[in-house]
Amino acid sequence: MLEKIREGSQGPAAKIVLGLVILSFALAGIGGYLGQTTEQPVAEVNGVKISQTKFSRAYSNERARLEQQFGEYFAQIAADPNYMAQIRQGVVDQLVQQELQTQLAKELGLRVSDEQVKKAIVEMPYFQIGGEFSNDRYLQVIRQMNFQPDSFREYLRDEMTRAQLISAVAGTDFVLKNELQQSIALQQQTRAIDYAVLSKELVKDEVSVSDEEVQNYYDLNQTQFQAPELVAVNYIELKAEDLAPAEPVTEEALKTYYEEQKNQYLEPERRRVSHILVDASEDAEAAKQKADEILAELNNGADFAVVAEEKSDDVVSAELGGDLDWIERDMMDPAFEDAAFALAAIGDVSEVVESEFGFHIIKLTDIQRQQAQSFEDVKDDLRAELEKAAKIDAFYQKQTRVAELAFEMADSLQDAAEAAGVEIKSTELVSRNALPEPLNSPAISNTIFTPELLEDRVNSEVLEVAPEHIVVVRVAEHKAAATKPLEEVSAQIKTQLSNEKASTLIAEKAQSLFEQLQGGSTLAEIAKAQSIEVKSVSELKRRSYDVPPAIAAEAFKLPQPGVAETESALVELGNGDSAFVVLKSVTTPEVDGKVDAQQKQSITASYANKNYLELLAALEAKSEVKRPQLQVTEQQ
């Protein structure tokens, strides 16, 4: 299992996950959100304390994610203290789970070397300029994330170690054939139902809302009626890809560059080889003796392909007479590779070579010597490289000048725009979460809403959107957040209160009618008395859009009815209406034969996710976990 774990940490999925984690933290502008820390930890797991600083980072990142997800509605959501308390508790739970995973990984002996951490950092695109790792950029970004190099490396090491654990659990999980068939059968199950909706509109005439109720609701819930803070922004944008090289790339420059970079355009030597493998996993001494006997047979004139087909333990290549096709350096086991490239001429056969797979006898069947690609073959690539380099050079020259002028002429973008050779762009009055690209990243929007830019109306510093892509912004107009007047929202409040009262009345009425249904009345009789329609669905599927989602969900929760019987339920719909559901029958198909690969993968992933969550729950159940009451001031 440990091998699976270590292999999993090297896979593309793990690297992508880690890259996204780091990028999301960077873009969230964690440093700007960090508040004061205290000695009181937010949680303690088997004696390991989770600090307020660590919580602040994770909470700020989650808050930024929610702001991006909900846009301008986030202000209303954040005004609900109960909801934000749930968010904070969810962040604590996540940190507890991470610590449990870290401790389990340590117990299993999982580790990530310094070299692996370094390699991961160097390969992260967010730390690169022009496709190359930049140490200056690396330091700049991690400081924005409130990390020092040592603490960031340890943070990344922890993330990579946990990724090993996740990869191991997901990578080693499997579903038995009968479980797979049962899952598919349940997914494909259909149900026959009757249902009737009791709309709150039926009791609207019985509802009245007074002006006093509207006023009271407005006074108690003013945070719901906040007009968001608005800004109109002027900005300039500079991208390397939009620039033209200062001078066209000449043929002479291309040839000079080709000669300088010629080693990069060498096609390495390739060799085509065949081999005979003797497996040594059970008895190495016997395997070596067998290999020596095969070599003697070949030296006495036996046909290599025939012997490989008969005696090689590499079943795949044996069918091809031992052929392994073309190989290059760093493709094979080092011992095998050294022996293969040591053969001097086509047709030569090696001595017995030992590798981690067993004992090999190798035959050289063809050679393609190392050769350089011609200038004509790579000219277009060379031109693209030189033009890109020239654009990047021009970009950084302009960026330096833009930074100087934006600071020196802080009351206008005109001089900086002329130096950049771009036009000044503008937005209308928009909220923080409605800013257009490229201003809608958290780092840039946070800068726009700083007091310096809002009150002093000065140019920002150069803000990086992406590598070789910058903006400079200034606020043209600002409207502070304010409570909307009662006159503007009174109709909205009246409608809301009316709906709430109607929903309460219809729920009470529905409960009374449901008792009649359970007492022996039929759904048709109740529907007729209330002048509502009974609808039938003969083959309701789990993911059906023919009925409201709450009805479909409840229908599949009901137990299978007996012969000539039904099961019923009362459902509260999301819009405040109520509904009666009567389950008449259940049809579960028989699943046999070959299962679709994509379906199998989806079910296996679902099982793996469920099992992993159960693993975390089991870890917490047998651990000593303390969660002191959170004392976190909501950061606006």
From TrEMBL:
Output the Gene Ontology terms for molecular function: peptidyl-prolyl cis-trans isomerase activity
Specify whether Transmembrane helix is a keyword of the entry. Answer: yes
> Membrane topology per the record?
Single-pass type II membrane protein
* Places the protein is found: Cell inner membrane
Positions of the PpiC domain: 268-366
TM regions (residue ranges): 12-34
Q: Which UniProt keywords apply?
A: Cell inner membrane, Cell membrane, Chaperone, Isomerase, Membrane, Rotamase, Transmembrane, Transmembrane helix
Pfam families named among the record's database cross-references: Rotamase_3, SurA_N_3
Q: Name one GO cellular component term.
A: plasma membrane
Concerning its family, UniProt says: Belongs to the PpiD chaperone family.
Protein name listed in UniProt: Periplasmic chaperone PpiD
**What organism is listed for this UniProt entry?**
Pseudoalteromonas maricaloris
Native organism taxonomy:
Bacteria, Pseudomonadati, Pseudomonadota, Gammaproteobacteria, Alteromonadales
